[in-house]
Amino acid sequence: MSPYLAAEDLSMFGRDPWWLVVVKAVFCFAFLMVTVLFSIVWERKVVAWMQLRIGPNRHGPWGMLQSLADGVKLMLKEDVVVKRADKAVYVLAPIVAAIPAFMAIAVIPFGPSGGEISVFGHRTAMQLTDLPIAMLYILAVASVGIYGIVLAGWSSGSTYPLLGGLRSCAQMISYEIAMGAAFASVFLYSGSMSTSTIVEQQHDRWYILLLPVSFLIYIVTMIGETNRAPFDMPESEGDLVGGFNTEYSSIKFAMFMLAEYVNMVTVSAVSTTLFLGGWRAPWPVSGFWAGANHGWWPLLWFVVKVQLLLFFFIWLRGTLPRVRYDQLMKLGWKVLIPVSVVWLMLVASVRALRNENYDFADIALYVGGGVLALLLVSFVADLFREKGRKAEQPAAEQLGFDPMAGGFPVPPLPGQELPPVPRRRPRRERELIVSGGVDTVSDGSTDGKEASDD
């Protein structure tokens, strides 16, 4: 085996008594629910602070019970089922969206896997379970959750929810590819797909320093996967009223909101596990305190990192406007996927050269030469593309453009221009009208004589 492949030790899992497994499962569920309740209040408070507003301040001290008040309000609302909906799928869709959001947390490590803590006299790992392919399990579960949104849009029997569901499906496909490539870089560097092993491999240096491009790609894709601003196209109220959940109310609407916030917590936990050292203490603390990564302290570092990523979600929502749908697709297909694939090739090349015991200088020379060759090819291709575009432009300009071809407004093709739009009257005529003179020239429906006769 290569010295750079991690030795997976999953012997601590599968030995807990049944009651301890239940306790850990309840803890994972409670952790998600409490974090969601806190995140809703925190989002309202932070966005209000950014926009110089007061924010929630009525329910509980400092408005801290606003999330519970929202939940009670939604449960007491009338539960409406639209007449033309496919009722079975319509009711099932919120459940399909919410349940997979809770399942991914099962393989996230909250602490060391070596039995660091004791629960009622039993030594156990701070993780519900782990798998040799735990990250593939997370990808599979995240992919299932999107079916809830698509089925909700289809089963509502309305146009706007259907468009929102289709947007969500296309968005998931375009961003899931780049996310998988970002994960693959971590797999190559750690030599494992086990979440606990990936965290163990970051004992000396976090992967955010070794794989910064993968981290940035995953940050963008996780915002697109959770349908959060500025990528909240499936529920954009500006053009789709409410998107896929337009026809939902009461507790079913609350299930969609719960799934969104739970997904935020889940992807933040995955980002922490893969790139931010997981439960490990940050460097200044771990440098002078030997016990920072033992006992219950790792849970604190994990929660702090997740909350920082949740603050990043809130910061984006209060800062950036919603992008257009074509910009969203262009970013996913033309930017994220090519960058992630090229970066994955570079990481794979570096790992292969390291496994062959090449020196760092040789690796930098080979990789740098490949990058320069790629840039040179791209530059030459851009030159030829620009020449071809200039050659095609005169031919396109000769084509007549009718903005109402076929009776419907159509956009111009590349190289075509819209005909000039009639503007305001000449200045002399405006002065005559303002000063009380007769409007001798109309908008074109009558001539000057008819205007004066009127």
TrEMBL record:
Residues 409-421 have a biased composition (Pro residues). Its EC number is 7.1.1.-. It is an enzyme of class 7 (translocase). It catalyses: a quinone + NADH + 5 H(+)(in) = a quinol + NAD(+) + 4 H(+)(out). GO terms for molecular function: oxidoreductase activity. Residues 402-454 are annotated as: Disordered. HAMAP family: NDH1_NuoH. This is NADH-quinone oxidoreductase subunit H. It comes from Streptomyces pyxinicus. The lineage of its organism: Bacteria, Bacillati, Actinomycetota, Actinomycetes, Kitasatosporales.
